[in-house]
Write a structure and sequence with these properties.
Elements lengths: L1 H15 L26 H8 L7 E4 L2 E5 L9 E7 L3 E7 L8 E5 L3 E8 L2 E8 H5 L28 E7 L5 E9 L2 E9 L6 E7 L5 E13 L4 E11 L7 E7 L3 E2 L18 E4 L18 H5 L9
Parallel strand pairs: 7-16
Antiparallel strand pairs: 1-3, 1-15, 2-14, 3-4, 4-5, 5-6, 6-7, 8-9, 9-10, 10-11, 11-12, 12-13, 13-14
């Protein structure tokens, strides 16, 4: 039961990409970013604006707070976070004493892991990226953790994968629907964008059986002139695994350090080796895989699905 609690907590933290914790005041809004779109763009035009985030190769923060919305008894967490495209991520967190002494989660080009306390020792959970992607439909975490780094503002838009949109929503945002080919089938990703500045505000990921398995909503965006792109300073994340309770969290980031790390640790993206027990996550599952539709989802029938007003 202790391990399952940690898995749930880590699942939420992987979605966030990381955070630090101390009680903070409500953040003041930043000045609005410059407008770069004056009319409804094509997918290619929108991608040109969104993909400016490619100028950010590294992102680091130690001035954030995180609130686990589905675990209200857990106080806010504290952490240092460093990430580097495409798969390198490290979060070392101080955890309230009621849950243990701390945790370590990370990812490199080959695998990802999280290490948690278990009494006086530690347990390390890990998996290779390629093997984990083969079983997302029955995995403990319902998404590949590397995809979740998009929630911190590093999302990219591939116009070749867009099968619907951009369209203007009733709330004034732009919307696109894309398809993502994964080992276990075709996933769909729906994104909302601010209409004039062209940055991502909301993301929704659907499994091949059309279950909504992950979503994020970003606010309090700040424009970074040197990179000519926008990053959110508040993100709310929701995960819905096929089995088990939904997981949700909200993080607030005080400041970012862009394209450099706040540490010179040479082992930053090396999986720790001193845990008393190591568990391969590909040997665990959330239960029996749910039945999926026999229909193969193609660009034609995906495009036919309703868009505007259905995902608020």
């Amino acid at each position: 039961m202790r391990s399952l609690l940690w898995i749930g907590l880590i699942a939420v933290c992987f979605v966030s990409g990381g955070a630090t914790c101390s009680k903070r005041d409500v953040p003041m809004p930043f000045p609005p970013p410059p407008a770069v779109l004056t009319e409804i763009p094509s997918a290619e035009e929108l991608a040109t604006v969104v993909n400016r985030t490619a100028s950010i190769q590294k992102l680091s923060t130690n001035t954030a707070t995180v609130e686990v919305l589905t675990m209200p008894s857990i106080p806010r967490l504290s952490a240092t976070v460093n990430l580097e495209r495409e798969k390198r991520f490290r979060m070392r967190a101080s955890v309230p004493i009621m849950l243990g002494v701390g945790m370590d989660m990370g990812s490199n080009d080959e695998l990802f892991w999280f290490e948690v306390p278990d009494g006086m020792s530690k347990v390390l959970y890990y998996a290779r990226h390629d093997q984990y992607r083969q079983q997302l439909n029955r995995a403990i975490l319902p998404v590949d953790p590397t995809w979740l780094m998009d929630a911190l503002g590093l999302a990219q838009l591939d116009p070749a994968s867009v099968v619907a949109g951009p369209v203007l929503r009733d709330d004034g945002k732009l919307e696109t629907r894309s398809i993502l080919q994964m080992p276990d089938g075709i996933y769909q990703k729906v994104c909302f964008f601010e209409k004039s500045a062209g940055y991502v505000t909301d993301q929704f990921l659907y499994a091949p059986d059309l279950r909504l398995i992950a979503k994020s909503s970003a606010t309090n965006h700040r424009y970074y002139d040197q990179q000519q792109c926008v990053l959110p300073h508040q993100v709310e994340i929701h995960l819905t695994p096929a089995f088990g309770e939904p997981l949700a969290m909200k993080i607030e980031i005080g400041s970012y350090t862009i394209n450099q790390f706040l540490t010179d640790d040479p082992q930053l993206f090396v999986m720790p080796q001193n845990a008393a027990q190591a568990v391969d996550l590909t040997t665990l599952s959330a239960g029996v895989a749910p039945q999926t539709h026999a229909t193969e989802y193609t660009a034609d029938n995906v495009t036919a699905m309703p868009m505007r007003g259905t995902l608020r």
